[in-house]
Write a structure and sequence with these properties.
- The protein is α+β, with helices and mostly antiparallel strands.
- Helix content is 40%, strand content 13%.
- The protein contains 2 helices and 2 strands; from the N terminus they run H-E-H-E.
- The chain has helices at 16-33, 57-69, and strands spanning 47-51, 73-77.
- The protein starts with 15 loop residues before the first helix and ends with a strand.
């Protein structure tokens, strides 16, 4: 079930069902992080392109790690 809105701007305007879905999804990913192989096939076969206008090693690596854990191929531009 998708969220009712594409943007999360604050809890006051977010429906309870969306908050529950977000927390349930977080619980699922917490369980993934406890496994020996920390990958899910969500983006398998997809390529994600990152374009950073400013150098930010920490942000780039965080994005890249998330993409790899979702089984995506990552391409970085800077």
């Amino acid at each position: 079930m998708p969220l009712s809105s594409r943007h999360l701007l604050g809890l006051e305007t977010t429906p309870k069902e969306d908050i529950k879905l977000i927390l349930d999804t977080a619980t699922t990913f917490k369980e993934v992080l406890e496994r020996p192989i920390k990958r899910v096939p969500t983006l398998q076969g997809k390529t994600v392109v990152n374009l950073f206008y400013e150098n930010s090693t920490r942000t780039r690596i965080s994005f890249e790690l998330a993409e790899k854990r979702l089984s995506a191929d990552a391409v970085n531009f800077s």
